[in-house]
Amino acid sequence: MRLFVAVRPPPEILETLGNLERPAVKGLRWTTPEQWHVTLRFFGEADEAAARQAFGRISVDGSAEAELGPATGRFAQRVLHAPVGGLESLAAATVVATAGVGTAPDSRPFAGHITLARATDRRGVDLRPLTGAALAGRWTVGEMSLVASHLGGRGPARYEVLETLRLSG
Fold this sequence. Notes:
It is built from three helices and ten strands. By secondary structure, it is an alpha+beta fold. It has a domain of 115 residues: Cyclic Phosphodiesterase, Chain: A, CATH 3.90.1140. Strands 2, 4, 5, 6, 7 and 8 form a six-stranded antiparallel sheet that branches. A hairpin with a 2-residue loop joins strand 9 and strand 10. The longest helix is centred in the middle third of the chain and has 10 residues.
């Protein structure tokens, strides 16, 4: 099962993202509001029972303050995203508690973001004209979720929340 741990933004942040222009660009597929989240830890294909057990071990002291923005960015020519800061401690706690489950996390520093669009092939798309759109928003993160990703072939992935961990604070 393809699994990850994520934080979902509240309705007002989803509305902010929904107000961004989404022009038709050949070779680019826009994500849907149902897909908008910040991944704290991606497992890839992993044993569901082991992931659930590890998810239950995540220890977080209080809530976190997430900050959207300041502007849309890109990862190379493949992903257009909205940066999200303030979730580094949640991501670190998640990585520690879930060590040994699924694919090991990347060694690069955590870069919180919400994926807005993806290139449909490996060559990518010139995303530069889409970057720099102003974004602003803050929210208190009250929960995180263990999520299953069901790939839809040529369509968008469908996400299913398996478990939720409420944060204190």
